[in-house]
Every structure is written in structure tokens, then in C-alpha cells.
Here is the input.
Amino acid sequence: MRPPSGFLRVEAAVCALRAGGVIACPTEAVWGLSCDPNNADAVAHLLALKRRPVAKGLILVAASEDQIGFLLAGLTVQQRATLADSWPGPATWLLPHLGQVPGWICGEHASVAVRVSDHPVVSALCSAWGGPLVSTSANRTGARPAREAFQVRRYFGDGLDYLLPGRIGVSGRPTPIRDIANGRIIRS
Here is the structure.
């Protein structure tokens, strides 16, 4: 029996990621770019595509809390409950990284932005990858995020290693970002 075509597409995306590539995929609200967060060259390529400075940091997206457990260990019971109430879902949280993520991910920050996604494509991709991935909007810095695949192609042309087909979620804007330390909204 042949695996479903969606499975083959996710596997092709994972192969591109393992080769150090940058891929595009639909997310909760917009198209995103992803790569291996532990591959400095892949992250540098992604940042160059976006024309984004490394100091700003990037978001990590995961399929489950287990995939980011190394970032949850130092949180209080209340903080963990807050995360559990919002995940999986379109909520991004700033968590202290305590030196557990590379500088090219956290930038100049003592925290890292993390989301456990319920978007079927993102979740399937992170599950197949086996851990968190970089997730950032598919646009050049200062431009509107892509909401259609043709916009992704227009922005990046041959600069991407794979475009994982699918539909963006129903949210009209990128996910809100909150700080777990104080609940403050960083991006609404």
C-alpha cells in the first residue's frame, strides 16, 4: 500500500531540512520559513533570505511539549499550566533558554520564542522531523507576510529548498507572543 501523498511531501520536506535546507510551509496565519535550528548555515541562509538581523532572534515551533521539554524544566507549576492551557494552538511564548539554544536562535535575548502548533502541516512536519524547527514568516523584513504560495515563490524564487503544500489556518494575523515571566504581550 502506498503512503498518502501528504506523507510523501512531509518526508520530502524533512529530507530538505536534513540536507541543511530552508523550506516554506503554511502555518496558523501566514506562510512560514523553517530550517534546522541547530544548523548555523541553514539559519544564516534563512536570515539572509529574509534580510533579518540575527540579533532579533527566531521562533521555535514544535508538535508537542515533549519536543521542547528542555526549555520547560525550569518553569514553575503555574507557568507550565499556563502553557498547557494555550498549547497546542496559535500562542507563542517567550521562555528563558538558560543557554540551551544557539545564539543564532535567541539573538540578543535571554529568552526564546516557542510555540506548540496545532496546525496540521506544522505539526506533521515537526513530528516527522523529531523536534522543534525554526518558524518565521515568509517575507523579507518589512514586507507583508505571504498568505499564498505564489507570494512565497515571488519573494524567494529559487532561494528555497522545498515548498510544502497546504493551506494556512484561519487566523488573520501572526500568533500573539507573550512573556511567560510576567504574561506581558510582546506582539498582539
Remarks:
- Residues 5-187 form a domain with the DHBP synthase fold (CATH 3.90.870.10).
